[in-house]
Amino acid sequence: MIVLISIIALAILGLCSGLLLGVAYVQFAVEEDPKVKAILAILPGANCGSCGFAGCHGFAEALVAGKIDTSGCLLGGIDVAKALSKEMGAEANLKEPKAAYLLCGGGCQNASNRFEYFGAPSCKAAQAIGGGFKSCIYGCFGYGDCAPVCPVDAITMNEEKLPVVDVEKCIACGKCIKECPRDLFILLTKNTRFHVKCDSNDKGAVSRKNCKVSCIACLLCQKVCKFDAIKIENNLAVIDQTKCTSCGECIKVCPTKCIVQFVKG
Amino acid sequence: MTELFLIIVSAILINNFILTKFLGLCPFVGVSNQIDASLGMGGAVIFVMTMAAAVAWAFQEYVLNPFHIGFLQTISYILVIAALVQFCEVVINKVSPALKQALGIYLPLITTNCAVLGVTILNFRSNYGFIQSVVNGFGSGLGFTIALLIMAGIRERLELAPIPTPLRGASITFLTAACMSLAFFGFIGLIPQ
What ipTM is given for this predicted complex? Predict the structure, then answer.
């Protein structure tokens, strides 16, 4: 008897719960925009967050609401942007794909230290103590805070304790830019061939003392550039990528070799 | 009124679900990385515990007791609470998108979490009435949130601390939890039994 009662009681309980939930799903159904669903099907679904929204669903809602254009998905790249544009019936606004580039070449062998640092192995912690142990107040600490935040594992640390960005892998999400306490990453287009691997605004003499591969603002590159693409601003050479023709003259004259060339592959 | 106040204080400090009863440890370790996340989780737990305490009391009083099938308590509580949480999620989804943003992702995670089930069964064992049950559920949720927040605060600071290599990760978390539990043990003398 008691067995029967308990079986019946549980069956009724299950039935009631099921009915309640079933009714609730119909009664309180939230109508989702069919367009959001269609867009979600196109997106990579990695929920990496590099578009700036909470996952792919957030991106899809923002796209439908018109807050972002179809090239917003960095992970998906051009293919996804084209597919999205087709879905949205809009003209694809295809941007040149970008990648993060490091603005420092002064690893542990080339740059000198002001004092010995024994604290936590983190760039942020190092920055907090006396403004950093490096003589150069602009240079990379080399503890690699940037590497673990990269969603596609494009950053590795080399033997000089400098982060190396795999340009092909990089999706330009900007997380390393936010993570670096010294703002040493910039986004440049992936076909960038020449860039200045230094961020020091110190005067030439000071820079040279601090680091063997810093820009010393000697003006040689500015003079040699036939296309007016290099300017010295605040004691630092800056290449205007829109004017640079990748002729490579600046590399030949740079005394500290702080201008570097990227070879594809 | 005094009794209800005592129930709340006791649920938060003396019978803290995580640190004294060792229930609900998975969200305690899992969602205590950041203060923001643990606030969301805590809110969801308070909500679910209060609701579960009320519904479980009613279920016990009007179904289990009259039919003398008290041995079905655990399994039927699980069913009732799971259905309740799912129902609440659907309703919140429709009624308040803002609340859904805050609690939404945590609600399914704690569908019949052991702490939620624990609060209902302990209510029954203490012979609490309806109001006492609800207050105890609310207080237990609050205690859970406080433990979670303290843990999250400590863990955010631990990120930067120079921890010996063998202790990094889960082991330092467990050691921290043990120290917190010891500290909360000191509250036992607060209310004379």
Answer: 0.72
